[in-house]
């Protein structure tokens, strides 16, 4: 399971070109979309602790809005073409850095800073991005798990089903961005004994925001020692 997450965000040397954004240029990008695969296989890590282990940073961030959809020709250092990849970008304001294991080897992510984060996408996710059908919405606050692709100028967001949004209902909960169809993995055992939860209407569980963030911070600090 871990392999799918890590390989989805690792990249060889790549040449990048901005093709389109959700507000313009879609006719050009639709042609490029046909050259993308449908998206990689997805599988959740075994636990929240495992998710913290495989990610390289975690932040609390407010999403300002979507940016561009970038297409890259992926090639090895030896010049072998691996295919074309696409990355959706988002502008965010960092509210808090829970942990960062690459503080000296990746672009800075500091509390209060506005940065661009990218996310690897397949054809279906790229279409959803251009059509403004992503799970993330502007102005909401998120717990984001990140990975840095070697040589990239920005951090990458792991897949949306692994991210959490602070509930805007005033109930103190952390909503998952996973669809109900793939939500069976989010169990009390997956969260661990330190994260309280409530039972959700779809039969799963919904963690409580503050203890969830505290546990991610604790585990991240512990694993960084």
Query: What does the main sheet amount to?
Result: 5 strands, mixed, barrel
> How many helical elements?
6
| CATH first level | Mainly Beta
Strand order of the largest sheet: 2-3-4-6-5
Distance between the termini: 25 Å
CATH architecture: Beta Barrel
Order of helices and strands: HEHHEEEHEEEEHEEH
Average pLDDT over all residues: 83
β-strand amount: 25-35%
- Named CATH topology: OB fold (Dihydrolipoamide Acetyltransferase, E2P)
Shape: globular
Query: How many domains is the backbone divided into?
Result: 1
Helicity range: 10-25%
Q: Return residue spans where pLDDT drops below 50 for at least 5 consecutive residues.
A: 1-18
The overall strand count is 10
Structural class determined from secondary elements: alpha+beta
- Computed Rg: 17 Å
Secondary structure elements and pairings:
Elements lengths: L1 H8 L4 E7 L5 H8 L14 H7 L2 E19 L5 E20 L13 E8 L1 H8 L10 E7 L7 E3 L6 E3 L7 E3 L11 H4 L5 E3 L5 E3 L1 H15 L2
Parallel strand pairs: 4-6
Antiparallel strand pairs: 1-2, 2-3, 2-5, 3-4, 5-6, 5-7, 7-8, 9-10
Helix pairs in contact: 3-6
Written overview of the protein:
With 225 residues, the protein is of the alpha+beta class. The protein has a single domain (2-171), classed as OB fold (Dihydrolipoamide Acetyltransferase, E2P) (Beta Barrel). It has helices spanning 2-9, 26-33, 48-54, 123-130, 188-191, 209-223; strands spanning 14-20, 57-75, 81-100, 114-121, 141-147, 155-157, 164-166, 174-176, 197-199, 205-207. A five-stranded mixed beta barrel has the order 2-3-4-6-5, surrounded by four helices. Strands 9-10 form a two-stranded antiparallel ribbon. Strand 9 (197-199) and strand 10 form a beta hairpin. Helix 3 (48-54) crosses helix 6. The radius of gyration is 17 Å and the shape is globular. The two termini are 25 Å apart. Residues 1-18 have low confidence and may be disordered.
